[in-house]
Amino acid sequence: MARSVGGTRSPVPVVVTSLAVAVLCLLPLGVVVAASIDVGWDAARTLLWRPRVAELLRNTTALVVLTVTATTLLGLSTAWLVERTALPGARVWRVLMVCPLAVPAFVNSYAWVTVRPDLEGLRGAVLVTTLSYFPFVFLPVSAALRSLDPTVEETARSLGLGPWRAFLRAVLPQLRHATLGGMLLVSLHLLAEFGVLAMLRFPTFTTAILEQFQVAFSDSAGSLLALVLMGLCLGLLTADQLLRGTSRQARVGRGAARRPVRAALGRWKAPALALMGGLTAAALGVPVASLARWLAAGDPTFDGRTWLVTVGSTIGLALVAGLLTVVAAFPVAWLISRRRSWLSILTERATYVASSLPGVVVALALVTLTIRYARPVYQTSIVLVAAYAILFIPRAMVSIRASMAHAPEELTQAARALGAGPVRTFARVLLPLTLPGALAGFAMVFIAVSTELTATLILAPTGVRTLATAFWSASESIDYAGAAPYAAALILVSTPVTYLLLHRSDEEPDL
Amino acid sequence: MTTLLVRGVRATYGRTEVLHGIDLVVPSGSTTAILGPSGCGKTTLLRVVTGFQPPTAGSVVLDDETVAGDGAWTPPERRRIGYVAQEGNLFPHLSIAANVAFGLPRAERKDTDRVAELLGLLGLDPGLMGRRPDQLSGGQQQRVAIARALAPRPRLVVLDEPFSSLDTGLRAATREAVAEALHHEGVTVVLVTHDQAEALSFADQVAIMHEGRLSQVGSPVQVYGAPADRRSAEFLGEAQFVSGIVRGDRVECALGELALDGRAPEGSVDVLVRPEQLRLVKAPGGRRAEVVSTTYFGHDALVTLDLVDSDGHPGLRLTARVNGLEAWAAGTPVSVDVVGPVRAFVDGQAGTVPSPG
């Protein structure tokens, strides 16, 4: 099985791991579909054709359309200002534009609610999610702008186009893939978002599914909502693929790497600085300031030992899930980048689809599955770690696959020719070269697990508290001072994400 | 008539000045090659002419209109200069037809006749119009880039090392097709290159650039045959120097008493002898020499030889270019003649500069 074009057999452990990963990733999809089929057509009709479902669909659509539009405009304009204009302090602004990713969105919404308690509904939801998610557009677009050959712009100028029209006709079309990638990422995060929307009382499919779960555990209404949500996610993936279409954007020629000429801002300098400053104040200043305020106010009931235990259990879960995910992702990444076979294509697609599924869908599917077929592991950390692995394996894969490029097949062949067996080749050539990528992947998963809220709320065994769930229960009971130490720890854990994303060698956005 | 006039242009790259006062006249309809080693500032000069960079001093005049310097500034899009970069830089998101029509007014962009005509002119199949840039070979991409630059009928076309990214076989064919197309359009051309064969074969005027200055401007025959200084002579082709002493219009050196090309001051000089100026014969007559080795190229060959003095001891080592059909085995005794007059240099400068005495 799994023969490559060259006919060399892939190692058995690699094949087994890849198969397991593919099955694990497709599991939630299958469970949700199966549970929905169990409901039956007539019951499904009555459950879905309700004003409530129509409202959820309206809300979800409005949120996605408005926030994606806002993040795209912000991401494109800030990336252009940072990469292509004489904006003072461009290097500092580039870091500041990525920093909001270090503040989990639900912590951001907590900060905004404590400042503006009247912030609710669509208005508040669009504001907070835009501030939290615009870096997802900024990052790929600014990377694309940096890799674009400046002579393309110059050629357009020499053909009679002014600076603005040259940007519109020659540069902007080339940012299409990067922008689409960012937009997809924002939409998927919005479909999966629970914390922000629950806090701002703006019901969408995700919040409704969780509510339903808390009321009725695992029932047909919840499964059907999950099916609709999953349909929306897969629809987005398909739309993205169609929009990218056949228009290939392979780079033409090697291109002389020359630094682009930055446009002078002239009288636009002050408005540009105001935009960057205002954005930083809203996306970073507000959370930091309000957190500082609540920390200073202090919480008389604060229990340092409980806090430490929570930090400990969060780190423990993140370590186990991170290690497991990287160990599972490594052979898969190797298989995908080195051997084209039906198995590698299947595994690649499976992780891609799973990565688009909201945490609530994956968690619900695992609940359904364990209740029916694996009662003993239900409500154990095993299921929670499995959910983390499904949700975050693509983050590890992106880094590891990029690092595979540093260890080309020719190098491993050279090692084999010099007399090293497969194991020694792995230990002495492949592993050292891909280790930085694996470590970066581990860090990404570690951070994602430490700040995961939705799936943890559903799957955490009784008595196990993580930073995110502890923060959530405090802020849900409007104990803002009590939530502050947990919010601070969440931001501290997430900070390295900024560095990791800014220094990643490949430029494709991950999910 | 003059299309381009560059007067006293100085410019910087980053903070270092890389152009120290360039003067250049490009006559209408001519092709001028700016030839120099990499880092000599030729690309910066090109960027000043196209308007991607302002000069710090001096001026650029296009068809009697000052476009840079003397307080004037015309942005690149209003200079009507076609620009072709090293890699062609076709817009990867547009088809070949849309690339070529890019610089045309909106109403004319749909007119496929002009696009087809230009593609045909460059020896490309008009059937390529619907293709994407990455479906074309490097040579085809470069031709499309030139068609795109010609489409809006520019008054000047500048080419920045347009053939250097192509492999040798493709380079000559592409160069020929491009030269023909440019000639057909009657457009004035400035070509920047570090390849002396390309400059000599492509241009009617060659400007040699060294460290931000033009050391010599002239026809290919002039700059190759009468280089202004030793460095230009070395840069334009294989050059060997033999020390000699000038007496009147003749120079005495290891190769005998030779006729001088131009004037030179009396006294010691370096005499330039190009390999093709040496003629080898097996019969005795000229200076005695012995073949050391032969590097064979097919159409011709370079023969390394040592002059032999009257006692039979080997002396000065020289290289001669011979017809590829002749065979010269190592150890063959030969006699060497110098064809035509030779150039003499004093302290690296050509001896023809008027000097006292």
Count of strand segments of chain B: 22
Query: What share of the residues of chain B does DSSP label as strand, in percent?
Result: 35-45%
Tell me the span between the first and last alpha carbons of chain B: 39 Å
Radius of gyration of chain B, in angstroms, nearest whole number: 24 Å
Return the CATH class of the largest domain in chain B. Answer: Alpha Beta
What shape does the CA trace of chain A take?
globular
CATH topology of the largest domain in chain A: MetI-like fold
Largest sheet of chain B: 6 strands, mixed
What is Rg of chain A? 24 Å
Structural description of this entry:
The complex is a heterodimer of chains A (511) and B (357). Chain A is mainly alpha-helical and 511 residues long. In chain A, helix 3 packs parallel to helix 6 (121-133) and helix 7 runs antiparallel to helix 10 (176-192). Chain A is globular. Chain A folds into two domains: 1-39 and 298-511, MetI-like fold (Orthogonal Bundle); 50-203 and 268-287, MetI-like fold (Orthogonal Bundle), CATH 1.10.3720. The longest helix of chain A has 35 residues, at 304-338. Helix content of chain A is 76%, strand content 0%. Chain B is an alpha+beta fold and 357 residues long. Chain B has two domains: 2-227, 3-Layer(aba) Sandwich (Rossmann fold), CATH 3.40.50; 238-350, Beta Barrel (OB fold (Dihydrolipoamide Acetyltransferase, E2P)). Chain B contains eight helices and 22 strands. Chain B has helices spanning 42-50, 96-100, 112-121, 138-150, 168-185, 196-202, 220-225, 230-236, and strands at 2-13, 16-27, 31-35, 57-62, 65-69, 72-73, 81-84, 156-160, 188-193, 205-210, 213-218, 240-247, 250-253, 256-259, 267-273, 278-281, 287-296, 300-308, 314-323, 333-338, 343-346, 349-350. Chain B has a six-stranded mixed β-sheet with strand order 7-8-9-3-10-11, sandwiched between helices. Chain B has a six-stranded antiparallel β-sheet with strand order 14-13-12-15-21-22, covered by helices on one side. In chain B, a hairpin with a 2-residue loop joins strand 5 (65-69) and strand 6. The chains are: A mainly alpha (511), B alpha+beta (357). The A-B interface holds A 149, 151-152, 154-163, 166, 169-170, 173-174, 176, 247-256, 261 and B 50-53, 75-94, 102-103, 132-134, 138, 141, 145, 148-149, 152, 165.
